[in-house]
Amino acid sequence: MSGFETVIYEKDGSVARLTLNRPQALNAFSVRMRDDLFEILSAIKTDDEVRAVVFKGAGDKAFCAGADLKEFLSAPSAVKARHIRSVRDLWRLFLSMPQPLIAALHGYVLGSGIEIALYCDLRLASPDAIFGFPEVTLGILPAAGGTQTLPRILGLSGALDMLLTGRRLNAQEAFLKGMVSRIVPREELLQKAEELAQNIASFDPVVVRNAKQALIHGLDMTLDQGLDLEWRLAAKIKEIRKSSKI
Ligand code: CAA
User: Fold this and answer.
1) pLDDT for 107-153, tens place per residue?
2) Residue 133's closest CA among 36, 74, 124, 116?
3) What angle do CA 200, 7, 41 make, to 5 degrees?
4) Which of the ends of the chain has fewer CB neighbours closer than 10 A, N or C?
């Protein structure tokens, strides 16, 4: 798959790599980028060869500095925006991805950029990473899931602190709050993300996908329902194993 204007898509065996590629605009998230990501993720979702996905940003300064503010001036009407969201719901697509998603974060990780990162399952950051939700300071609401994903990761108190004030976190603060799982020197960031992806890809993909599903879906259930889900998924794996031996 190639020919995308704003995202570089590479597939290397069982690992897919997506590079947000508008470095001249700090990889700002544009309508074109939304469409490119939608097309690429739709293809990856049904590609059983892909066992892990790495997201990164091109250039030295940013993973993604948020929504393209220049496009805001020509934003479509609310009716059109709602229609586009119903046919190309990138954020629900992110949520429904069966493979583990790994974000390699450097520089500015703002607005839609942090929202993309929060859909990922593992977040690695270099020490220069800066995280923030500037939306409220711009007079808008985060609308790519941030109000929902952030409290699930930081807890309500930490999420309110970021969202209501626009306060930025550096990599160390993000690590201490549990938003990133590892801080890695800038020059090793991509290599470490790649190693992590290769490591996950070396495990049984059925187990990995079901483990992800149990965690992500279980979080929105009562403990009782979550235990049921875990039991059903474990039983499904046993069935798959049994039938593959026949
Ligand atoms: N949209 C479009 N272009 C952007 C951009 C954005 N979000 N962020 C940076 N750029 C462009 C700049 O316009 C500049 O382009 P030119 O060279 O053509 O002028 C280039 O990227 C480099 O940026 P700066 O010169 O500003 O770099 P800096 O190091 O001085 O500052 C920064 C970096 C603090 C991140 C600053 O660029 C900035 O504040 N950017 C905007 C951040 C922001 O508010 N993002 C939107 C959040 S809202 C959102 O994402 C949610 C939503 O759905 C609406």
Assistant:
1) 999 999 999 999 999 999 999 999 999 999 999 999 999 999 999 99
2) 116
3) 50
4) C
